[in-house]
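F.,

This is the one I mentioned.
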């Protein structure tokens, strides 16, 4: 049974339909982040932000759930917490069922970031709100990918660096990875993205699909990536 389940999860070549991803990017203000739909860590004025209006937002502190409010802006959504940090926020967006060149799939995005991050606080190590998630491990500077709460080696990981260049990252046999050298100041933001395809047929809003394409992002400052 485990072997059969493992075979149902696989990663594939880059998907043109998924050139844009949902990102949560901290602002300069305490307890605030922008939710954007973009191919970088900056809002894309050419893509209506309403495309991801259905995103469900979550927030938590070390002590449990936290409060937050989402407000629509021109090219982004502003998500504001009560200002108490550190706080981890996340978004889950069931984008919809698509049919691209005969490939029928359901597209789902997950995004997260940590505001006011403190190395002493246990955030970033896994959240049941996110079926696919990049997390920290107990080894400093080492990350892993979780699928349904368990480490997976079946994901494809990409690093978006401060200069917007991308780097493909290989997972080891434990589903873990390190970032390697990254040029940029301590306050530079970087983006981590994981992709996993689940062979699972279904139907949404009258549209059938043969698989589910999951994308998970994490925006963090370079100084907190070590």
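My design for it:
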């Amino acid at each position: 049974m485990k072997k059969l389940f493992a075979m149902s999860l696989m990663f594939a070549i880059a998907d043109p339909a998924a050139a844009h991803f949902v990102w949560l990017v901290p602002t300069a203000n305490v307890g605030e982040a922008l939710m954007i739909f973009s191919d970088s860590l900056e809002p894309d004025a050419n893509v209506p932000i309403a495309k991801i209006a259905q995103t469900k937002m979550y927030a938590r502190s070390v002590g449990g759930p936290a409060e937050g409010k989402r407000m629509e802006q021109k090219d982004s959504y502003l998500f504001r917490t009560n200002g108490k940090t550190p706080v981890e926020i996340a978004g889950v967006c069931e984008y919809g069922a698509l049919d691209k060149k005969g490939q029928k799939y359901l597209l789902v995005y997950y995004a997260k970031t940590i505001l006011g991050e403190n190395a002493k606080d246990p955030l970033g190590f896994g959240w049941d709100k996110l079926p696919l998630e990049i997390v920290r491990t107990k080894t400093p500077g080492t990350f892993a990918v979780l699928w349904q709460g368990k480490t997976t080696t079946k994901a494809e990981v990409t690093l978006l660096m401060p200069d917007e260049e991308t780097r493909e990252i290989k997972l080891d046999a434990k589903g873990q990875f390190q970032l390697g050298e990254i040029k940029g100041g301590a306050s530079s933001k970087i983006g981590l993205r994981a992709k996993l395809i689940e062979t699972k047929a279904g139907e949404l809003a009258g549209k059938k699909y043969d698989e589910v394409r999951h994308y998970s992002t994490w925006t963090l400052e370079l100084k907190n990536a070590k």
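Residues 2-7 form the longest helix (6 residues).

Talk soon.
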